[in-house]
Amino acid sequence: MINLDNKVALITGSSDGIGAATATLFSSLGAKVAIVGRDQTKLDKVAAECEAKSPHHYKPVVIKADFVRDEDVVRTFEETISAYKKLDILVNNAGLSSKKGFGEPDALADYDRVQQVNVRAVVRLTELAAPHLKETNGSVVNISSVAAVRPNPGSWSYCMSKASLDMFTKCMAGKLAPHVRVNSVNPGAVLTSFTRDRPDLEALGPFFIQKNPLKRVAEPIDIANAIAFLASDAARNMTGSIVFSDTGLLVADPYAK
Q1: Which of 84, 151, 182, 232 is the most buried (most CB within 10 A)?
Q2: Residue 58: active-site member
Q3: Strands 242-245 and 32-37: what pairing?
Q4: Catalytic residue among 58, 84, 111, 158
Q5: What is the CATH topology of the domain spanning 8-190+220-247?
Q6: pLDDT in tens, 21-37
Q7: Quick check: helix, strand or coil at residue 62?
């Protein structure tokens, strides 16, 4: 059974989607959470859900931040430690998708933005958190993607960022052992506001279901469950693991109709 009672967890990108589901799940398991995002209204909604789910009625620390800015990354960490005085779990979930195709105008500027949020911010936050996580024998869970190993030329900078994140997970697992475990969850298609707002979702939904052996598209709670497991002592034997939660996309028959 997963037990996060009185654990302190910093969950980035938690105003919606996977991050929000993770924050509410952690709260329901007894954790004290710090939630981070760019939309104050969404953050306030998630905070209320976390407090309602918490068996101790813990109120989350709410931090509005944009990880495009290094100073917001540092401020996020400082506000979390100031409030809780310790850290047990870091969930690096904040991320951006790529918007510019290779060779398009401003493609490199978009690449820099994606790398800043998806890689550099993770490195910086992990660097800041590591000493505190060592004190608590804590855990880091990075949220990557099947895109780390499954190329998509249309999202080349996103794929590159997630491949980098997977290697960072493995390197830090070795570096921070034995006191801190570092693992990754790599989702496939997940129904979040990002995907629901896409104008082509009506066409993409059946496509994803057809291509996935489990014949479904994941919900955020599916990914949150995997994150909670890796963050907990139930996964005490795991570090440096890249855990795919992709409805079987990577093992799909490429010739199946």
Answers
A1: 182
A2: no
A3: unpaired
A4: 158
A5: Rossmann fold (3.40.50)
A6: 999 999 999 999 999 99
A7: strand
